[in-house]
Amino acid sequence: MSWFLVVLLVMAVVRGPFYGLVEDGPFGPGTWGGPTKAGAWAAHAGISVPIIGALLFVFRGIGWLHAALVRRLYGLAGRWVLPATISVCAGGMLLIWSWIQQL
Known about the structure:
Blueprint: H1 2-15, H2 19-22, H3 37-73, H4 81-102
């Protein structure tokens, strides 16, 4: 799950704030940001920067859940850890499945 999210983070960084460096156009009137390269760059950056910040919080949450799961294996954490881990894994599988279906 984390590796898939790392790939999404890299794509969000490359195709977001650095959009103008990796894409040369054409930028038509129906594209994000309008017909100019600056508008498309601003639109991609404006959408991807909050996504990048959210992914960093998701990584922190997954790390926290992993630490709680390890504590659970030693008998130190509560009963909520295993159901939370199972639901995060199931949600990750659904996310990956929907991503594959999009391709």
